[in-house]
Amino acid sequence: MPAIITNAFRTYNADNFIGSFATNKVYLMIGKADSWSGASAGQYSESSPSDTAIPTPKDTTVAPYIHHNDMIAAKLINASDVSHVVKRTDWTSGTVYTEYDHNQDDQIDQTFFVMTDQYNVYKCISNYGGVVSTVKPTGQSSSIIETSDNYRWKFMYEVQQADVLKYVTTDWIPIKYLTTNDGTAQWTVQQAAVDGALEHIDVTAGGTGYVNTNTGTAQTGSTSTTIKLASTASATDDIYNSMTVYISSGTGSGQIKVITDYVGSTKVATVSAWTTTPDATSVYEVMPAVSITTTEGTGATARCSSVVGGIVKKVAMTAVGTGYRSGTATLTGGGGTGCTLEPRIGPKNGHGKNAKTELGGAYVMMNVRLTGTEGGDFVVGDDFRKVILITNPYVSGSAATATTYSGAEMDDDSGEQIYVEFRAPINRASDQTEDVKLVVEF
């Protein structure tokens, strides 16, 4: 029977793992002071490992006994030292970033979000048909951010300075969902998210021949149900019928109407009643009309906002609506053919509501700082080669509760070893601090 382990399941397990630190004692155990050498069927398959040819650990029933014997010391991992993380992708000019697509299998494995040098994280909503990104996204707006290279980005969160120091590496960045207002822009973005908002309609094919468009500044003479277009408008009657006229600036800015009649000799287009009648300051765009059809959402409206050489390049949302789970969009008017549009359905609760689930927080990082001898329990002047997570070990027959233990203190074979990593030798000195960062995937 075909089945999948969903990304939601992976994130759910990661959540539970992080939550377990509140009720369980999880220790970072270091071990193995001697060099890697010789065969050891119980813990690895290699016959001739060395400190430069590190073996790969095996999950056998005897391996935990060997690891306990190699133990040097252990330190408790606090719940505050554990975080969801996602793979790091730095924004770089000249790169094509994958845009969000609700039909994409395993979306979280795509390069569809970036971090900038300000530690702001953005999700790519549109890559303008697959062009390279040349303008870095900036700002922390709760609305979609459009850069001059026509990319559309959604600001998700800023990595806070304390988290930069603990969890940012060359490969990983921390991510979280806020349950209370921490005063950051992420909280504002979470609160502004709208479930089922239709934030973007993608132009999957631009078609050809959409040349019956017109932009300009209205002439004097518009009425409550008409607009007198610029002298550059077509002289052909009804050529703009069924298209939309959008007031982009000036008097009546933001209004959009469908043209029901057009007289070429007078340049007058008839529309339904304006809220504010345009005048000679009103800059307009006459473009093909965009229609949205759905049975699972309301309130979204859109307009064609860019046609270049008869090819439709971009659709802009004039209202995002709510409750969309599906839908289709079509283009009418303009004289062309072949344009296809795809409404992009947002994630549950809307873009930006939960960065952790939207960007794929199925990875967990633990950061443990080892400082000198840690009060005498950690040996210095020697190496270690094993890093192991052990849960709920015992000391002298009772559950371990202290922050650190030497290898001799912890009861043999107690606790559960849930993670094993073999490393090249790491030498410890009394004036040395190691930040041990472990990342596990769910």
Word description of this protein:
The chain has 442 residues and is mainly β. It folds into three domains: 7-82 and 364-441, baseplate structural protein gp8, domain 1, CATH 2.60.340.10; 89-168 and 176-196 and 349-359, no CATH class; 201-344, no CATH class. 9% of the residues lie in helices and 37% in strands. The protein has helices at residues 7-20, 63-69, 161-167, 185-192, 355-359; strands at 26-31, 71-76, 82-87, 113-115, 120-126, 145-146, 152-158, 172-174, 200-208, 214-217, 226-228, 244-249, 256-258, 261-263, 268-270, 283-287, 289-293, 298-308, 311-322, 328-332, 337-344, 363-371, 383-391, 394-395, 398-399, 404-406, 416-427, 433-441. A five-stranded antiparallel beta sheet has the order 26-2-1-23-27. Strands 8-3-22-28 form a four-stranded antiparallel beta sheet, with helices on both faces. A four-stranded antiparallel beta sheet has the order 4-5-7-6, with helices on one face. A hairpin with a 4-residue loop joins strand 14 and strand 15 (268-270).
